[in-house]
Design goal:
globular; 48% helix; alpha/beta; ten-stranded mixed beta sheet; disordered N terminus
């Protein structure tokens, strides 16, 4: 009897392993949705569509971008959190909606460190402070001098209140001891259009969102906010180089899945996305958008999220930014 039970248990176990292996081997067996939590045209949208396209081309998968914009990117994250943890609903998250957003919106029904699983880091980008090509401002020093001569008269546009980009502008105000007026927009593209038209004096933006207009000569970059110069804009000085020591603000982008997504699926996605980031063609495409491709293992990316989540709580609170 005991031998019979052991045999049955063994057969059941082998069958379970075979089923699990078959499921893992079959992934993906249908289209994967990649939620983009911001409108078309911004940095998140550009990188998301690039990743979806390259995964589709390299692996014959079907990865479908799906813009779900609103509330600083938190609407798209909420949809991803509520999705079934099967690997067929992913989201492109970044510092704005996963690290800054939760401290701005006091009633979010999720915690990024508990309700999502980090899949793959894609890229990071500095924030760029820019102005229209026909602006009176030629350097960051020009902006500071004008702001000190006439406080609260210079305006800067950002993709929205409380985004990392807005807070980069806020932190620069504090570092330079100036008072400039923040004009929040609903996404990067509307802010960019108003900066080009001269309706705001400055644009504070991710590099990918502004890169096309910089290349076209319509937008003049004054400084980037990262510790080191952007490899996409090597001639543009950093804020730190402009006289504000240790200034360092950048944002990252990466793919996440709902908590509970099978480890095997996360591993598959991480491996394939990291392969893309090592591909010279994909690297060049990301760099051309003004972002810096950086591959990480899933646990490394998870640690980055947790570290930044704790760090930016104080930054957001000190800024006074809040969204009800």
């Amino acid at each position: 009897m005991l031998l019979k039970k052991l045999l049955v248990w063994s057969l059941v176990s082998v069958a379970a392993v075979n089923v699990a292996q078959a499921q893992n081997a079959a992934y993906p067996s249908k289209p994967i949705r990649l939620i983009i939590p911001f409108p078309p045209g911004g940095g998140t949208d550009i990188l998301s569509r690039l990743v979806a396209q390259k995964l589709t081309e390299a692996n014959k998968w079907s990865v479908v971008p799906d813009n779900r914009a609103g509330a600083g990117g938190t609407i798209g994250i909420t949809e991803a959190v509520k999705a079934a943890p099967t690997g067929y609903d992913l989201v492109m998250g970044q510092k704005d909606n996963l690290v800054v957003g939760p401290w701005l919106y006091g009633n979010l029904p999720w915690d990024p460190t508990k309700d999502l699983v980090a899949v793959a880091h894609v890229a990071y980008t500095p924030v760029v402070i820019a102005t229209s090509a026909n602006s009176r401002f030629k350097t960051l020093a020009d902006v500071v001098a004008a702001a000190k001569a006439a406080p609260d008269t210079i305006t800067y546009g950002s993709p929205g209140n409380g985004t990392t980009i807005h807070l980069a502008g806020h932190l620069f105000e504090k570092a330079a001891n100036i008072n400039i007026r923040h004009i929040p927009y609903k996404g990067s593209n509307p802010a960019l259009m108003d900066a080009l038209a001269g309706n705001v004096d400055l644009l504070v933006s991710s590099v990918p969102s502004a890169m096309a207009q910089i290349k076209a000569g319509k937008l003049r970059p004054l400084a980037v906010t990262s510790a080191a110069r952007s490899s996409s804009l090597p001639e543009v000085p950093t804020v730190a180089e402009s006289g504000y020591k240790d200034f360092d603000v950048s944002t990252w982008y990466g793919v996440f899945a709902p908590a509970g997504t099978p480890v095997a699926v996360v591993t598959t996605l991480n491996t394939e996305i990291n392969k893309l980031l090592a591909n010279p063609e994909t690297k060049a495409a990301i760099l051309a958008q003004g972002a810096e491709p950086v591959a990480m293992k899933a646990d490394q990316f998870s640690n980055l999220l947790k570290t930044d989540y704790a760090k930016w709580k104080g930054i957001v609170q000190s800024s006074g930014a809040k969204v009800e």
